[in-house]
Amino acid sequence: MDIRKTAAETASRAGLEFTEPAEYVFEEKDYEPKELAAFIDHTLLKPEASAEEIDAICDQALEHSFASVCVNPTYAGQVSRRLKGSGVRTCCVIGFPFGTHEPEIKAAETVKAISDGAEEVDMVIDIANVKNGEWRKAFEDISTVVRAAEGKALVKVIIETALLTDEEKVGICTVARLAGADFVKTSTGYSKGGATAEDVELMRRTVGAEMGVKASGGIRTYTDAVKMLNAGASRLGCSAGVAIVTG
User: Which residue of the set 122, 126, 141, 182 is catalytic?
Assistant: First the structure.
């Protein structure tokens, strides 16, 4: 597959002007386990998660200096208060886990999450738009959330790679970039598969150096984490963050 050609064709179908992303230079690196903390969104998205469990993952994030704590929106306020002044960011999911909310609902959820203290939002696309080839609708789905965030929070776009072809992955990553999102992200962790190094590399080659790529789903060990970073990830979504950074 010619990534550039597929990206340009998708942009055209969405009625968007295609621009070339800045080239990303891949580099193999070794990391000490504790160095990985800066890349990790320490995550707890179980629907049955208790307030006590949320406090516990916040305390773990503070102890290890993770990048963020990622939770469902109802816990955004609690997490924000617990992490205040620490440098660990509050992240929450939007339209989770299926992405089938209307864009206006995702936008309202984003505004509320930010008002509760969220500094990053991980939105789930409506995958049907991709499967139906409705690239303009996919663009509006993402750009509505980007506008709602208004520069007050980073926007990560979960594309659910396990459900897409390589051409669809390139297409939706291109649309997310042109919509002004800050990151593309592999997975919710609630589908039939999670992150793979091959998908991360494809996403990175598509968006170039100007966006973040978040690998999420099934990253449980130090080896998993390093493999994703060397494939081009700049953030990792993990529930096993403590085990990873302690080796």
Answer: 122
